[in-house]
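Tutorial handout. Part one gives the primary structure; part two gives the three-dimensional structure as tokens.
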Amino acid sequence: MRTSGMDWLRKLLHPDSAPARTERLGVAHARQVAALHHRGGFARGWEPAECAALIADAGVVTDGVFSGGGSPAGFAMSRKAADEAEILSIVVLPARRGAGLGRALLAAHLARLAGEGVVQVFLEVEEGNEPAERLYRHFGFREVGRRKGYYPKPDGTRATAIAMRLDLA
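Part two.
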């Protein structure tokens, strides 16, 4: 029996999970994106109006991952500039982490960016966020720098950001 390329990709990314559906998110998803961002563990969550403005921006690409429901279980958002993009945020609901949704989401998001002519993708991740670092390294991101004291923490301290880059072409 012949399988489609997408079935092969799903099995490669996470062979034991139910397939996750990814799609581009629109302004109608702004409240859901804001709620996901608030639950993502960031020191300052985004408000629905901020999310709506970002999603509406022609230079911003926002994808959601869905698994067994009408609301996204996660999202990835990037801002494009020429042939580069920066991942602004990627979030999967804490209760859904470890099920392969992050891999499916990031794979779809990177494929969309590549399809839109992006050849380099940058991101920053908080030092010590090992699950996120593992995910990014799985896709080939590599460290290109550090920003000490970049991320504010709820206790008033500041954490180092690891800057990473992926070459898509």
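Part three, for discussion. DSSP finds five helices and seven strands in the chain. The chain has a mean pLDDT of 88.
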